[in-house]
User: What shape does this take?
Amino acid sequence: MPTDPDLPDPGNLPDPPPESTNDDPARPDDCAEHRTRALEAETLAAHLTTELDRARAELAALHRTHELTALLHDAGAIDPDAALVLLNHASPDENTVAAVAALQREKPYLFRALRASTHAASMPPTRPVINSPTDLDDALHLAATKGDRPSLLRYLRLRRAL
Assistant: This one.
């Protein structure tokens, strides 16, 4: 058979292109594996999101407990644990400062009584000053005639000051 010079030699033809990947028997298995891995990743992401939300809620509860404990200490709580249980049970979402103030109003026996001044109570009373010898006699006469308690106490203080 004569060969046409314009046609390529059949022995020197390039290799045919590879077959379509749709016909590859390994391809459906790869798709199933990828789907399985994607579903596992989505499940893991949902689980981790749930754990993260739980951890955030626990952290918020710990912050609130710490803040309440500090406020109860500052308010002079006698039993901070009991007060903390009452606060968490009664109002878990309420403002902490308002909750402690409300507990102080409702249950004052859980808190120490505030003292007006500890310095004045610990100082000894001042000694009365006797300006003249007749001050004692005047105080005695006033206590005897009036007979009231302040007059008698004034006389006794003046006498003790001698």
The radius of gyration is 47 Å.
